[in-house]
Amino acid sequence: MTHPTQRKPEIQKTEGEATEEELLLPWMRRKLKRVKSLLYQWEDIILFSSIGILKGEVLIMAMVKKSITVTDRQDVWIKAQIKIGHFGNESEVVRELIRERQLCEERAVNDIEIIRMKLIKAEASGFTDQSPEEVLKEIKNGLGRNAGL
């Protein structure tokens, strides 16, 4: 037996009225918004990322209450994100932005490591007997000596 709030509303169609799909759309949007909100809450508790999974065990993150100040323009944007259904509340917006920033920083660390390895490989390959003009020509043609790095 389904809970009364989980039942699909009964729809009776009369001449010239909207179809069942058109009438169900707002109900479905409300349900989807609620599901998204619950998913975001669980996502915040159990992080499925390199931060949230530690040696195969799920790491439960404690929630800490914060107070932040935003500009009027930022407040309008946050409220718009909630209104169009991207997020269920302001905290979800802020947490998502923090997660995105964390991922960017992780990628930056990886990029720096890749550059460091390329520099080490380039230094180990030695010097060239080519003139600066010849080196520049190879670079412009994409045929540099270390193009495969």
Average per-residue pLDDT, rounded, comes to 75
Instruction: Assign the structural class, choosing from mainly alpha, mainly beta, alpha/beta, alpha+beta, or little secondary structure.
Output: mainly alpha
Strand content: under 5%
What is the strand tally? 2
Task: Give the terminus-to-terminus CA distance.
Answer: 63 Å
Shape: elongated
Order of helices and strands: HEEHHH
**Domains, number:** 2
The helix content is: 55-70%
Record the strand order, biggest sheet.
Answer: 1-2
| Low-confidence parts | 46-55
Biggest sheet layout: 2 strands, antiparallel
The number of helical segments is 4
- Quaternary structure: single chain
Rg for CA atoms: 27 Å
Walk me through what this model shows.
The protein has helices spanning 20-45, 72-83, 90-124, 132-141, and strands at residues 53-54, 57-58. By secondary structure, it is an all-alpha fold. The protein has 4 helices and 2 strands. The termini are far apart. 2% of the residues are buried.
Outline the fold blueprint.
Blueprint: H1 20-45, E1 53-54, E2 57-58, H2 72-83, H3 90-124, H4 132-141
Antiparallel strand pairs: 1-2
Please give a quick description of this structure.
The chain is mostly helical. Helix content is 56%, strand content 3%.
Keywords for this entry:
mainly alpha; two-stranded antiparallel sheet; 4 helices; 2 domains
